[in-house]
Backbone:
């Protein structure tokens, strides 16, 4: 009898355990689960933009001689190749729209053509002197962008539109002189002492593509245009810096 009671008790306990297990299993699909968002709200990224940089000169005193000086500069000065790069943080409000800021270093400016040196008076050229020279002007800035971006499409490759304003914080200007001798080139870089404006503002516009590598990572490639709307110096001839670049950014979402 005792064995029968133990067997029945064991059987009942086993059945109860099965019932509770089945209830817990069947209850799982009915539990509320958080929807999985198909985009990451916050993104951190890095970017590098090879740039073609130049400037616009403006006559500030209206003098005819100033116009002649501007024409002289325009005849020998040309764009230069440089870059902009830094880190970014983006906030997505939806899958297709968000804002972005960051901190970048930018080398803006321009350069001269390779100029022939004028022979010294009396004829003949000093064989130890350089025959040609080029000046490269570097305007070093810390850039703080604030831009909006829109993406169009639902596939891995989407169309990207961006625009905004960049606060340019001037650090310094340096001048690189390249001296072309008969058999070698000598380069020297020095700081300049002109009183350039500390702050500038550059509206920017970009059009490109956004490629989703994974759900968390994406790559952006966009041609961009940036133009400084404030004069760089208070002088009879002032300038406005601008550049065109190919901005390449890599982002990770969180």
Residues:
């Amino acid at each position: 009898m005792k064995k029968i009671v133990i067997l029945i008790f064991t059987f009942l306990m086993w059945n109860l355990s099965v019932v509770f297990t089945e209830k817990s299993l069947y209850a799982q699909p009915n539990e509320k689960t958080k929807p999985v968002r198909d985009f990451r709200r916050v993104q951190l990224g890095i970017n590098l933009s090879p740039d073609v940089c130049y400037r616009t000169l403006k006559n500030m005193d209206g003098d005819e001689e100033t116009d002649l000086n501007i024409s002289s500069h325009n005849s020998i000065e040309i764009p230069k190749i440089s870059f902009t790069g830094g880190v970014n943080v983006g906030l997505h409000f939806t899958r297709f729209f968000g804002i972005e800021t960051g901190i970048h270093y930018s080398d803006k400016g321009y350069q001269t053509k390779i100029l022939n040196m004028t022979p010294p008076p009396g004829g003949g050229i000093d064989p130890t002197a350089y025959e040609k020279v080029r000046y490269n002007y570097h305007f070093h800035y810390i850039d703080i962008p604030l831009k909006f971006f829109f993406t169009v499409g639902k596939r891995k490759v989407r169309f990207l539109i961006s625009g905004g304003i960049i606060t340019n914080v001037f650090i310094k200007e340096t001048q690189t002189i390249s001296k072309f001798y008969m058999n070698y080139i000598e380069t020297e870089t020095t700081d300049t002492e002109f009183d350039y404006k500390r702050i500038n503002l550059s509206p920017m516009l970009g059009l490109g593509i956004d490629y989703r590598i994974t759900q968390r990572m994406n790559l952006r490639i966009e041609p961009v245009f940036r133009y400084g709307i404030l004069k760089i110096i208070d002088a009879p001839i002032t300038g406005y810096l601008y550049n065109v670049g190919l901005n390449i950014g890599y982002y990770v979402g969180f």
